[in-house]
Protein 1
Amino acid sequence: MSEESKETRHMLAAIDERNAEQFLLCAETMHYADLAEIYESLTEEERDFFTSNIDMEQFAEVLADLPDTLIEETIERLEPAEQREILDQISDDDRVDILQDVSDDARERLLELVEPDDIEVTKSLLKYDESTAGGRMTTHFASIHGEMTVQQALESLRKESEETESFARVYVIDAKDKLCGYVRFRDLAFNLPETIISDFMRPVKRFILASADQEEAAQMVSKYDLFVLPVVNEQHRLLGIITHDDVVEILEEESTEDMEKMAGFSGEGSEETYLNTPTMIHFRRRFPWLFGLAILAIASGIVMIKFEDVLNSLFILSLFLPMVVAAGGNTGGQASTMVIRAMALGELDQDSIIRVAWKELRLGLMLGALLGTGMAIITITFVPMFYHDMPAEIGFTKFAIAVAVALAIQITSSTLVGSLLPLGARAAKIDPAVIAAPAITTIVDVSGMVIYFFVAKAILGL
Amino acid sequence: MSEESKETRHMLAAIDERNAEQFLLCAETMHYADLAEIYESLTEEERDFFTSNIDMEQFAEVLADLPDTLIEETIERLEPAEQREILDQISDDDRVDILQDVSDDARERLLELVEPDDIEVTKSLLKYDESTAGGRMTTHFASIHGEMTVQQALESLRKESEETESFARVYVIDAKDKLCGYVRFRDLAFNLPETIISDFMRPVKRFILASADQEEAAQMVSKYDLFVLPVVNEQHRLLGIITHDDVVEILEEESTEDMEKMAGFSGEGSEETYLNTPTMIHFRRRFPWLFGLAILAIASGIVMIKFEDVLNSLFILSLFLPMVVAAGGNTGGQASTMVIRAMALGELDQDSIIRVAWKELRLGLMLGALLGTGMAIITITFVPMFYHDMPAEIGFTKFAIAVAVALAIQITSSTLVGSLLPLGARAAKIDPAVIAAPAITTIVDVSGMVIYFFVAKAILGL
């Protein structure tokens, strides 16, 4: 790792001194991912220096690695001739990604610059949404025909060798591009030249429709340890492949997005690194939920006002009020995290709802009973040490029982709410990750107040 | 996908009827990942039927795909002869994984069953912890020597063809197994047979030490879009490779673990699916944090008791108390999620602490100012409609200002706490994900109470 940071330091020094010669020398040996990271951290003028000095063939790869939000302003820095070169050098799927990230105006302008022999595939890929299997796939797969001999197959592959992204799987297609099977590249290298492909090709058991969600593709690759996942259309025509690096990217994106939603952020997961995201963007993504939840939280205050007389008649109740309320938020948050993650990993379908409810109900009862008992013991042991105004008709035991019962009810109901709300959200076609910890905490805060005061009133006769 | 569930349904029917013939027929065509999922969902007697009928060669793969917690009880179901066959059939890294998952007793017993020609590599791999690059790597990589011709290289690879996991990268090593470079398999297939390997081999720029953390390996593969990551020892000897499916597994494990820790779970992320994890295990993983946080939450209650006179002299303060407290938890949770995820993706090092603090301080001030202003407006507009007991010397405007100021201070401080605590945790070698939403919420609940009552006292002169 230290070698990379040395490279990066040299590069940053070259940019700082506006030393074009040194800059090119550094860039030559660097990986596009490191260059993209450096570019992201530069000021406006430094970025101008970067783009006007770097080799366009290399910059095509850097550009494809930049976060979505930087694509348009970066490509606008370039001359039309440079834009044309970039669009020519870049792979089909990266070209389409870039075109999908820019404004409609810019897309029309850039499409005019795409070379005639690339325009058809570009336009056909543009039809697929970015988050579908079709939007993620690359069209540079290796394909041969079943009636070829091994020698013919190798010759046909050799011609496309530099363009092809992965030779891990060589797909066998028919005259209409329909997917018939696959061979491993090593099968070609280790078979006799005159062997016919269809004699030893294997069936393709797993493939995905171009219109399917990218998350489904990632789940299949992950579950079945696939090297490459072929993407087909309704007619079983092979359109492209999803490779391991796409899957890694999808998994990281989806996990980040889920975590952010679970913490109450608006909008899509940001691809930019935390520090390089402008403060205003952070602000806009965090504010709406905060404000909404704050309004909701006033409901808890209204409950407190309504039960003013209960609280005033036995103010020691305040000692455990925040605890009972917070315990509901914590257990509800745990339950929702479990369920949301299980859904993201494809473990729960709509039929599981009864099993989930039953499991969480038992869990809630167990957690509630044990925590309630623990708190009752703590109450009876410690509260009499410093509190001497307990009315005789109530007594510490009754008080402890009230706290314990309220806590147990609050925990059981919150566990159930936390596990079922995300499932309900999915049934209502809302992203379950949105109904996570912050929303659930706010909801069970209100119910916790109500439960606590009702139980206190009932058991202590206030 | 529907084809898979049909297979699964047939299989479950065969198990239900204890129909061994049908069972074997189904198993033959099924993927080990599906078989493992089915096995996980079976009862004790069904599992016995499963293990006593399935072909041991196939069961070796199923076993390697089972969650850690099921490994020991599953392998104990088998006869020693079957265990021996499994240990022989399985790949080196899976064998070591299994041995690492069982108790010390079982490990000693199983090691005796390992074939003599596998025992050395097994023992050497057992030295690496499961969560290191060395613990994750497979030793079935393709390697050749630089002085070989292409023809010699292909012949040597052909012999190992069935054992080798990935031919995407063929590594070139010297007589002492030191890593010298790599060639792509297609380079071999498309070069003349008499070409010398060292004439066209490429340098290996990225590799990892066997002792490095698995997360570091996954981050390298993800950042640099690698096919395969070579694992070396201190002497640069090539020991193994980490492939795409290891990386996918590492990423899913680490994301699940982070999410669970962020929601307050104890222990390691569970590999078992949510529904198949026994309720008692869920209970044990959730209870400790819930109990600890409940004890901490009593501190909030103590603050309330201490400020009893402030609350009693102006009970309408209760209306906004839960909101101010909860807003801190929400904004602190957002900040910590951002920072923890950025750390997990390798974006933040220890030096970034000042930049993070500065960013979150500005964000906190902006969020606090805007939310405070919003709440002040709401207070002045709506509270006078139903509350008629506001003392004249205080008035609604002063009251609204007190609420707004307390809210702004609470949000600013909570944002800062939420972002800095995870960084502090890492500096103190505590896993930052542990110091996430639930812990931060509980901490800022207490500080929120204190801030609210102090500000109310100061501004309203109570």
Note: The radius of gyration of chain B is 30 Å.
Protein 2
Amino acid sequence: MVEQTAAVLDQYSIRMNDMLEWLSGYGADEQGGVTRLLYSREWIAAQEALSSYMKEQGLETFYDQAGNLTGRLVGSNPDLLPVVTGSHIDTVICGGKYDGTYGVVAGILALAYLQQVYGPPVRTIDVISLCEEEGSRFPLTYWGSGNIAGNYSMERIPAVSDREGITLEEAMSAAGFGPDSPYRSCLRSWDAYIELHIEQGFVLERSQQQIGIVNGIVGQRRIRVSVGGESNHAGTTPMGWRRDSLACAAEMITCIRHSALEMGDPLVATVGSIQPSPGVSNVIAGETIFTLDIRHLDRKVLDEYTDKLQQKLRKIASQEGMDMYWEENLNIDPVLMHPDIITDLQHICESSGIACRTMPSGAGHDAQVLGSQRPAAMIFVPSRQGISHNPLEYTADEDLMQGFRVLTEWLYQYAYRGECHETL
Amino acid sequence: MVEQTAAVLDQYSIRMNDMLEWLSGYGADEQGGVTRLLYSREWIAAQEALSSYMKEQGLETFYDQAGNLTGRLVGSNPDLLPVVTGSHIDTVICGGKYDGTYGVVAGILALAYLQQVYGPPVRTIDVISLCEEEGSRFPLTYWGSGNIAGNYSMERIPAVSDREGITLEEAMSAAGFGPDSPYRSCLRSWDAYIELHIEQGFVLERSQQQIGIVNGIVGQRRIRVSVGGESNHAGTTPMGWRRDSLACAAEMITCIRHSALEMGDPLVATVGSIQPSPGVSNVIAGETIFTLDIRHLDRKVLDEYTDKLQQKLRKIASQEGMDMYWEENLNIDPVLMHPDIITDLQHICESSGIACRTMPSGAGHDAQVLGSQRPAAMIFVPSRQGISHNPLEYTADEDLMQGFRVLTEWLYQYAYRGECHETL
């Protein structure tokens, strides 16, 4: 283990808090949250501030054309590809201080710490502040990591616009990035990626564990289910003669929940939105549309469950004499985290006596984009009450520091001692 | 039975069709429907046209201060209070040709027919075009019949406005009515009221019956049910740890339907509107609000069912660890039609070989307002596919004429021969 004395850890805990507080000033909004949208003035200022801070820690820094900012701790062996940690600092509108930002801040501090105690590593370590994850300004997610992974490129910039009609290309160019900027094109060669992030759920908090070792980021299917019945007068139509689409949808929602509970974790199935038509208290709904969000870590299980569920819902519709339309509008593959890094992280937690659990991530992260190309891993710390994307987002100092310790330890074992190298 | 020869009936059938067509020109809208809102230019013109038509039929006519238009066939015995038939000619926005209008038109033609064949009656017969039933311009219903029944008065005109901010009082005054108009105040003395109306449901059509004899207008309770759970991320919150308000509401909706089916006709219970919050596909709904509309002919059954249902829903909420709020915002008493008139009408149908059923009205009508003061009755004719409040509203000529026949026969028996007088 690295020497994590109480005094040194206390010092880094203070720095972590200071940095999170300091960064939350970039984009502080009137609601007490942080609004730092891609390529906005606040976002540019925050990246610049981070760049300066990285330099002060003795890191080499560089942007790429998309606006991803890297801080580099150069290793002694130039033949080894860099190992990368980091996350993103863009936020949702009125978000919290921790989502993404924590992973960037903790990554910079981890490199500072390692350099302070051990000097340069064998393998180069990069900390990256990815230029977009949330998709809260433009209707696309993972623009930053997507450019690195090759999902996007400067040759084909998506023709999307923000709410004010500004295109992604215009905004990127105005921020000083893009194909005509002085920056180099995106990195395409790296060894592995490890991201420290808040859980954005309450599993760790409720199970009183401090670290979540992510075994994968769930695949996701989103479906729009439409139930077609017959709209009639709520007073003049006897119960037995109705074709009530909302009543039928209610049976379906119950079926969805029960079948998901039966399937067990990590499967989740959610109906979050429902719209009966005409949606008036004294009229039987002729058509009801609801959304269905299904997630699982295993592609096969996700698909089998979804297929069986569709059959069940069709049976309910048929029994009730209803029409049913099933329209899928999102289908994302699960991405597994690398099993060797998972094992490394489990060992680190065990030997440090940290209460941890191996768990899937139900939310999407840059690690799933980078993890589709190269080995990736994620470390979760608890989110108080599971709250995220909200000014009330909070993680206790002690938990922030446990995440920092596990990240630092793994980077030390990996980049200084090469302990895990053979397996990747 | 009155002498309803084929030739005479054919003649009245043509007149009925002509009149319905002619009236639908007052307020004909671009969608092919009729929009004739209270005190609008179209409504005033239609009442005036009806007034002229009534005079041509030899009826005395008069308005009251509210704008109700009466056509009177004066009886030979001035000691007998008038028997009244009629309905309303105001419509919903983009309504059909039959709702209300049919009862007014058939009433005028019934008086014309009786006078043509039998001369003046013993008891005075009034046909009334009530000045508002739908509540489609102002947020109040039964303004016309309510003034007659004493629920409203010119001394206390409700302070309501239409969508353009015009008050009821302003609109009434601009139309030439109101307390300062030359018209007399509303009639408060009448003997009985009988209203011919389209069913606005599909029970008669599907059961292949031509006449519905209404035994009562159902009471109605409207409740806003709010289910409070916990809003969480749809990806990061395991199924077993959720407090999903929409899933709980779905269980409740199923319970509502099943309990209503179990209770049997004429009870109906409808959830027509539901609003989960935040209502986003990837967020578990923290709160879900839905409407509940319950109707029954028997006050006691309506209340017992509603109370038991509330208990059941509270039990579901409790089992799911949810909060539930129950807010009633409408509670209308059932109004029974007069049993003797029901018997009269049943006899008329039987002796004429008309397929009829005795049935409740699930929708509200002026007959419930006037019926709260004096004996009332309603005759229904089939609505094609149960469609109403829509340009597609339609009743076949043959059915329109059966309604006319039954109404005319009852008025003849009642006002000419005094056959039912003793019992009322």
Note: The CA atoms of residues 77 and 122 of chain A lie 5 Å apart.
